[in-house]
Amino acid sequence: MQISLETKPYAALGTDALVSYVFEEADPVQGRISELDQAANGLLRNLAKSGELTGKTLEMTLIHAPAGLKAARLLLVGAGKREQFTSATLRKIAGAALRYLKARSVKQLAFLIRENNATEEFTQSIAEGALAANFESDKYKTEKKNDKSIDTLVLTGYSDADRAAGEKGLSRGRIIAEAQNFARDLINEPSNKLTPKILAEKAEAMAKQAGLAVEILDEKKIADLKMGALLSVAQGGPEPPRVMVVTYTPAHLKPGAPVIGLIGKAVTFDTGGISIKPADGMEKMKYDMAGGATMLGVMRALAVLKPNVKVICVVPSTENMPGGTAQKPGDIQTAMSGKTIEVLNTDAEGRLILADGIHYAKQLGATHLIDAATLTGAIVVALANVNAGVFGSDQPFTDKFLASSKAAGEKMWQMPIDDDYREFIKGTVADIQNIGSGKGGGAITGAMFIKEFTGDSPWIHLDIAGTAWNDDAKPWLAKGPTGVALRTLVHLVMSY
Ligand code: BES
Ligand code: ZN
Ligand code: ZN
To answer: Which ligand 1 atom is at minimum distance from the Cα of 436?
Structure first.
């Protein structure tokens, strides 16, 4: 999709559809919209009077051949209450409008920004919303939905004075949304098309193209490094594991600045291993690499956005298979850090591979750690598919992260992780065990296990099991992978 910014009068824009938005208030026909209303001899006021145009969130009002406009259609999207309007609302409006029009075979659209919204932040959110909405999971369909995709988007309603800020927002929004779609593409891949080896090849290609340093650890190097926890998961099947290390280094390294470590779980398929999962719904476990894909997407965006801090991304990847050589419940493994782990359930494999990923990221010099993982079904019980779970060992760092999640419009909720939960994973025959002792709090137990490998470093754990995949389409996003946490992480790293 081509996106451009236009300062010429919007009424003279020839396009398939002009989109704008109205607020839910006594008179939704105000400002720019009242200009349109006047040109159309009061049509919009009449629609408002009859109750067809209310401004309620994501209400769609489509008008064909609108008087006074060169556009073939006018689409007004409800923006909800003006006091509650944020860039997150605008992102959804842009996405929902695009998907609504795309379903009607529209090819070009123009988005008319409202008064006072022609800023960098709002423009970025329109670009992000539109590009994410244009993504379809139809790579393997012979008849593509994407043939219907929108070709051009013109952002309009900007003055000459707004242009520079608008262009900046547009370019940043494009970089971020394209990175998000890159991650979503990876997450969509089935496990026969995306093994750890293939994922590593794709990560390497992305990094080289983006100008990032990259190193792929193969099974031999992984064994040399004594990543026993990762290897214990990988031994269950024939596909060898990989660890991807992608590094961004800024031109000027400030002494004392943090080095951010981004660690992502990339289990390309999780059968559960010997503690095998039920057949029903198991196909979804192809998305058990969403954390890793998201971290790679973050790096892709950072390569262009050039933050001031160094970022080391470590993605451990394996399948979790129940082959004859698989680890068995009760097996004891030694992680790279030297800690011994009693594997009571082979389906709690994400925390095992993260244990070694995190230890390695620290060894490479990361001072502040963030991991993202589709770690537990328990986080879905706690927060459904609405909020991602956030666990943090350092409150100021966690607060900074949560502020970024707000700014990026991604819903996240902080969960507790105090020392009382340490009991749950205390080992009987080894240092720790990989599941809790059946007292509930499954998402917290998972986080507590990972914490064991973070030492004194400030650390944040994101459990995205409930939010990385949409079972149903949203008005602004296709069903399937969401790319959740990418925007928040990019915002956070850029804020240093
Ligand atoms: N990959 C799963 C978690 C998951 C569940 C992701 C649902 C996406 C949707 C993870 O490896 C797992 O199996 N966790 C177990 C842990 C348990 C054995 C302690 C779980 O949540 O059941
Ligand atoms: Zn599992
Ligand atoms: Zn898993």
So the answer is: 19
